[in-house]
From TrEMBL:
Keywords: Hydrogen ion transport, Ion transport, Membrane, Transmembrane, Transmembrane helix, Transport. It is a multi-pass membrane protein. One of its GO terms (molecular function) is proton-transporting ATPase activity, rotational mechanism. Residues 28-87, 119-176 form the V-ATPase proteolipid subunit C-like domain. This is V-ATPase proteolipid subunit C-like domain-containing protein. SUPFAM superfamilies: F1F0 ATP synthase subunit C (SSF81333). The keyword Membrane applies. Pfam families: ATP-synt_C (PF00137). GO terms for cellular component: proton-transporting V-type ATPase, V0 domain. It comes from Helicotheca tamesis.
């Protein structure tokens, strides 16, 4: 195994992560927030949809009214889109394109903003995975129970609403985390 003799080589993952641009961290936060939210929504729709189709064989009347479960799952993806828009509006491009930051730049401010946006996006994404799965499981139970007894629909739907609230709590936490995350304006004087 040969080692790279260039000054642009990384010794390992620790060096990659400690030398990554704050813009990179911010954009990864946006990507994780949006991507994981979509994964949570898809997972929930998969859980709910398969049970809905299976239970609708026994009781076709449940097809349309149990689509609310799919809508609740899709809301988790929408929470990720909202957070991605909020975070993307906080990323300000530098005045001049450069591969190295100038000595006069506020390094602490940039890294604070980058890490804050990364943690905000990651927390929203992970929360929305949990929300999507829990809404999917509750929606699956709702479809199966509704096929057996129509009076159970509203009772289980309340549980599903509380499961969906996890995603709302996640986006609130993400907004609070990202409030102070603004890239500073560079002064090259």
């Amino acid at each position: 195994m040969t080692t790279c003799a260039s000054e642009y080589c990384n010794a390992g993952w620790a060096e990659v992560l400690t030398h990554m641009s704050p813009y990179g961290y911010a954009n990864f936060g946006i990507a994780f927030g949006l991507g994981l939210s979509v994964v949570g929504a898809a997972w929930g729709i998969w859980l709910t949809g398969s049970s809905l189709v299976g239970a609708a064989v026994k009781a076709p009347r449940i097809r349309s009214k149990n689509l609310i479960s799919v809508i609740f799952c899709e809301a988790t993806a929408i929470y990720g889109v909202i957070m991605a828009i909020i975070l993307a509006n906080k990323v300000k491009a530098p005045d001049e394109p450069t591969s190295q930051l100038d000595e006069l730049w506020d390094f602490n401010g940039y890294y604070y903003a980058g890490y804050g946006m990364f943690s905000s996006g990651l927390s929203v994404g992970l929360t929305n995975i949990a929300s999507g799965v829990s809404v999917g499981i509750a929606g699956s139970s709702c479809a199966i129970a509704d096929a057996q007894d129509a009076s159970l629909f509203v009772k289980i739907l309340i549980v599903e609403i509380f499961a969906s609230a996890l995603g709302i709590f996640g986006i609130i936490v993400g907004i609070i985390q990202s409030n102070a995350c603004t890239f500073p304006i560079a002064s090259l004087e």
